[in-house]
Amino acid sequence: LFARPCTFFYAAQKSDQLPPPGLPEVAFCGRSNVGKSSLLNALTGQKALARVSQTPGRTRQLNFFNLAERLVLVDLPGYGYAKASKDMQRDWQGVMFDYLRGRPNLMRVMLLLDARIETKSADRAAMDLLNTAAVAFQIVLTKADDVGPVKLAARIEEAKDLARRNTAAHPLVLVTSSESGQGIDELRAEIASLAVA
Ligand code: GTP
Ligand code: MG
Asked: In this structure, which residues have their CB less than 5 angstroms from ion ligand 2?
């Protein structure tokens, strides 16, 4: 599936601008700078598909990508970015949370947590929202290349514990790096299992 081309087809800035629900969707959700856009590029092997930036708050709209007419990948704006203005935060997060709560064809949310950083209250809030809305999500640790083995092992245990305690969470935690390619094939397999035949 991921050998096939993936193409950008839609950007939504407001809740009433979402494309009509069609193919199954998998959305990438997480704090600003956690590596959502980078992961999308690593998965598809298309380096410039989604815009990546060192400045948090790069992705400011919901970007929809069609993967071989079998699945739609959705790059979401990040949450928990302290430097964004209140108005901007409210705008992006409003449309994102509306999307997460109300999307009938949203098959799974990949909830990204930075392997280097402790889980923040904004992450817990996102998981609470997904539990409440009964939207299936899966925890994906990112940037595993940039953390030592002892700390990584502790983060994995913490993530597994979160997966056990959150009712909507998938039990399998994925450990990835867009830099080294670690866990990318495993994540591809999870996503491919949600595509239409
Ligand atoms: P927003 O769109 O602002 O919410 O950010 P994002 O979650 O899409 O993150 P993005 O992919 O833009 O990456 C943010 C920064 O993290 C960039 O400087 C990336 O190069 C870096 N980064 C992303 N993935 C990895 C990774 O696997 N390892 C390392 N070491 N750095 C990474
Ligand atoms: Mg982004």
From this structure: 36-37, 58-59
Query: CATH fold of 6-192, please?
Result: Rossmann fold (3.40.50)
52 CB near ligand 1 (under 6 Å)? yes
Convert the pLDDT of each residue in 150-182 to its tens digit. 999 999 999 999 999 999 999 999 999 999 999
Dihedral sign, Cα of residue 76, residue 79, residue 82, residue 84 = positive
Nearest CA to ligand 1 atom 24: 35
Q: Is the ipTM of this complex over 0.90?
A: yes
What are the Cα distances from residue 107, in Å, to 78, 158, 165? Answer: 20, 25, 20
pTM of the model: 0.95
Query: Which atom of ligand 1 is closest in space to residue 59's alpha carbon?
Result: 2
